[in-house]
Design goal:
- The complex is a heterodimer of chains A (about 210) and B (about 375).
- Chain A has a single domain (about 5-205), classed as Thiolase/Chalcone synthase (Peroxisomal Thiolase, Chain A, domain 1).
- Chain A is built from seven helices and eight strands; from the N terminus they run E-E-E-H-H-E-H-H-H-E-H-E-E-E-H.
- Chain A has helices at about 35-45, 55-75, 90-105, 110-115, 120-130, 145-160, 195-205; strands at about 5-15, 15-20, 25, 80-85, 135-140, 165-175, 175-185, 190.
- In chain A, strands 1, 2, 3, 4, 5, 6, 7 and 8 form an eight-stranded mixed β-sheet that branches.
- The relative contact order of chain B is 0.19.
- Chain B is globular, with a radius of gyration of 19 Å.
- In chain B, helix 5 crosses helix 10.
- Chain B has two domains: about 5-215, 3-Layer(aba) Sandwich (Peroxisomal Thiolase, Chain A, domain 1), CATH 3.40.47.10; about 230-380, Thiolase/Chalcone synthase (Peroxisomal Thiolase, Chain A, domain 1, 3-Layer(aba) Sandwich).
- Helices cover about 30% and strands about 20% of the residues of chain B.
- Chain B is α/β, with parallel strands linked by helices.
- In chain B, helix 8 links the parallel strand 10 (about 270-275) and strand 11.
- In chain B, the strands form three sheets. In chain B, strands 5-4-6-8-1-9-16-15-10-11-13 form an eleven-stranded mixed β-sheet, sandwiched between helices. Chain B has a three-stranded mixed β-sheet with strand order 2-3-7, with no helix packed on it. A two-stranded antiparallel ribbon of chain B has the order 12-14.
- Chains A and B meet through helix 3, helix 5, strand 5 and helix 6 of A and helix 4, strand 5, helix 5, helix 6 and helix 7 of B.
- Strand 5 (about 135-140) of chain A pairs antiparallel with strand 5 (about 140) of chain B.
- Chain A: It comes from Aureibaculum flavum.
Chain lengths: ~210, ~375
């Protein structure tokens, strides 16, 4: 028998607004920059985690999205929670920064602290470290939010018992434009895990 | 439940433009690593395994106009084209395309590049390949640091097993660029000599470039002679550090456990391990610990980085294809560059080419972000 899976909790971070399960958590005025906005998110979550301030923008965005979804879901460290993230711009925001540090041979200053963030899956590393998730994980790139793929991949992880639940999402940071939609697929919940439901939730303007 | 198989394949590297040429060089003990002095890429000379540009452009003439495509695209197109020609596969709505790359066309970010900056988007690389070969489905781009190449195999299997696709073509590739070399150099990870995986005197990695492609299929008919069945896989995170491996090899240990559980085999049935073996202190030590925790310390193991350097997003697939040939030829290939064991736990590094009946092998990889992947394969024929 095929086991039903559910979208138990989800979070949007876009347009300087954070919402969880469709409910507004907080909002900054639209002129505020991501650096300030992300700091507000950190404060709102009552975090005391200095690593956050070393992260690049993409990792900060993914980290905050994961915090909100995992807080709502309440997991234990020994829960087998897989992480599957996707985006369009990969780590290009930091790639450009690293390229800037090597472009001019007169001022050549490549830095390991920047270079390490030139990989999109570092976001998964950051979330895994914070929540001690030694579980299945993968990062994929698509032109746009791909509900069909995320649905198929998360379902296969659950079906093959590679994980008990899956933290999925679209986390994109490109220039000053960003978009984060993260959600948890669990065995229990109200919303069925279907591609249509994912597409609808992704578009959610709340 | 449907089985999945690795079938027709290709490697484009400094050791040749077909899998057969690459294996011939490996069996003769030829490494592709050379000293390179190119100030455009790095101020100081470095060791690398580079594809000759004139050879690449000559080979590419049959596919298109060289100036319209980036270096990486030419490598990946050639590799995928060879697989499609060998397999005679008809591309349908049930044929998937997976691209595995760490940095793609990141070299176009250089202000001196003649290509538009949009080319740096990985989905753009996916589109180039999709359109050129007429794939019906959007490319799935796996970009998961240094495990990408082997993770792509695992993803292909999962998408086939869940019925999304009947066949998947994987094209993987990364090039040597100033972007990559300057970054690894800032980490002080680059060796000033040819790399020596698992050796006492190892001094770090060499970065190399390659493309590799393979057909992953659920169809048992028309498999290649060297075909393997994918028995099990796992990709677990260390949850320890973003740029260094876990000291206990936790993520790799869990990945191998997960793969073995799915494969429903004992560790004792594994005949050969194709390790990651980058020749950095921490990586090689971590692998030795993880293998011993799994009681795999006696199993013959090699790293192919001594032939190719670390080819990033291509390495996992490239090394899997070499592993296929190892099983097909019943030959364990020398772990090039190895001298004296330089890890704290005992592992059985292959010192010379050895003929031996081989049935089952384990491929592993680990990378930044704490990622690890393990996949187990078994001979079909």
């Amino acid at each position: 028998m095929k086991i039903e899976n559910y979208i138990s909790n989800y979070c949007h971070i876009r347009n300087n607004t954070v919402s969880v399960n469709g409910e507004l958590i907080f909002k900054e005025d639209s002129n505020s920059e991501f650096a300030d906005f992300s700091k507000k998110g950190y404060k709102q979550l009552n975090l005391s985690y200095s690593k956050f301030f070393k992260m690049d923008n993409l990792s900060k965005l993914a980290f905050l999205g994961a915090e909100y979804v995992l807080n709502a879901t309440k997991i234990d460290a020994d829960d087998n929670v897989a992480i599957v993230l996707t985006n369009r711009a990969s780590s290009l925001d930091t790639d450009r920064k690293h390229q800037g540090s090597i472009q001019d041979k007169e001022s050549y200053y490549p830095s390991p602290a920047v270079f390490v963030y030139t990989l999109p899956n570092i976001t998964i590393g950051e979330i895994s470290i914070k929540h001690q998730l030694k579980s299945e994980n993968a990062f994929f790139i698509f032109d746009a939010f791909n509900a069909d793929f995320l649905h198929a991949y998360a379902s296969s992880l659950l079906e093959k018992e590679k994980a008990e639940s899956v933290l999925c999402g679209w986390v994109d940071y490109d220039g000053e434009a960003y978009d984060c939609f993260m959600y948890m697929i669990s065995k229990k919940g109200q919303r069925k895990h279907t591609t249509n439901e994912l597409k609808n939730l992704y578009k959610n303007k709340d | 439940m449907s089985q999945t198989y690795l079938s027709y394949n290709n490697i484009i590297s400094s050791l040749g433009f077909t899998t057969a040429q690459n294996i011939e060089n490996i069996s003769l003990g030829n490494s592709g690593i050379e000293k390179v002095d190119d100030k455009k890429v790095l101020q100081t000379p470095f060791y690398s395994s580079l594809i000759k540009t004139d050879q690449l452009d000559t080979a590419f003439q049959k596919l298109g106009n060289s100036i319209d495509f980036t270096r990486l695209e030419k490598m990946m197109f050639l590799s995928l084209n060879d697989v499609l020609e060998q397999s005679n596969l008809e591309i349908t709505a049930k044929t998937g395309l997976i691209i595995s790359t760490t940095k793609g066309n990141v070299d176009v970010l250089d202000t001196n590049s003649k290509f538009p900056k949009e080319r740096a988007y990985l989905a753009e690389l996916g589109k180039q390949i999709q359109q050129f070969f007429g794939f019906k489905n959007e490319a799935i781009v796996v970009s998961n640091a240094c495990v990408s190449g082997i993770l792509a195999v695992s993803v292909a299997k999962r998408m086939i097993t869940s019925g999304v696709y009947d066949d998947v073509l994987i094209a993987s590739g990364d090039i040597v660029s100033e972007f990559i070399l300057s970054g690894f150099q800032s980490f002080q990870a680059i060796s000033d000599a040819p790399c020596r995986p698992f050796s006492k005197n190892r001094t770090g990695i060499n970065i190399g470039e390659a493309a590799a492609a393979i057909l992953v299929t659920s169809q048992k008919e028309n498999l290649s002679p060297d075909a393997l069945e994918i028995l099990g896989d796992g990709s677990c995170n260390d949850a320890n550090h973003i740029s260094g491996p876990s000291r206990t090899g936790e993520g790799l240990y869990r990945s191998i456990q997960s793969a073995l559980k799915e494969a429903m085999i004992e560790t004792s049935t594994i005949d050969y391990i194709s390790a990651h073996g980058t020749a950095t202190n921490y990586n090689d030590e971590m692998e030795a610990i993880a293998f011993n925790r799994m009681e795999l310390g006696d199993v013959p193991v090699n790293s192919l980085k001594g032939y190719y350097g670390h080819t990033l997003g291509a390495s996992g697939l490239l090394e899997t294809i070499v592993g296929m040939q190892s099983l097909f030829n019943n030959t364990l290939y020398t772990s090039y560059g190895f001298d004296e064991l330089g890890v704290s736990q005992s592992i059985n590094v292959i010192k010379e080419n050895t003929k031996k009946p081989l049935q089952t092998f384990l491929k592993t990889a680990s990378g930044f972000g704490g990622c690890n992947t393990a996949v187990i394969f078994k001979k079909v024929h």
